[in-house]
Recover the amino acids of this structure.
């Protein structure tokens, strides 16, 4: 599961040449999975910026739990924890980027 992967592979310990550490949910393979209007997909991302490197590993595990629960499609964090070693960013992909309330709940 994504949360186990995230817990066993802290982003702060990942080699920086890897650039990103990803987790993603299972793909069911059905055409109706994406929230679409016509031919437009609303899958998008929300970014949590300025995450202290001291807590980014724990926050990434929480994002992975939200992926497992189906609240996010995927999540990623910078390998090494972030730029300059002080702060990083978590990027969470949602089925509908317009649903701010859903992103905040996750």
């Amino acid at each position: 599961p994504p949360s186990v992967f995230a817990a066993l592979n802290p982003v702060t310990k990942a080699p920086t040449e890897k650039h990103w550490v990803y987790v993603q949910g299972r793909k069911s393979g059905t055409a109706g999975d994406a929230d679409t209007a016509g031919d437009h997909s609303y899958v998008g991302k929300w970014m949590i910026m300025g995450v202290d490197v001291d807590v980014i590993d724990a926050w990434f595990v929480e994002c992975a739990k939200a992926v497992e629960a189906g609240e996010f499609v995927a999540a990623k964090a910078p390998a090494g924890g972030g730029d300059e070693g002080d702060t990083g960013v978590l990027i969470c992909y949602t089925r509908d980027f317009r649903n701010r309330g859903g992103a905040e709940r996750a």
User: Anything to note?
Assistant: Residues 29-37 have pLDDT under 50 and may be disordered. Residues 38 and 45 are 20 Å apart (CA to CA). The first helix runs from residue 2 to 8.
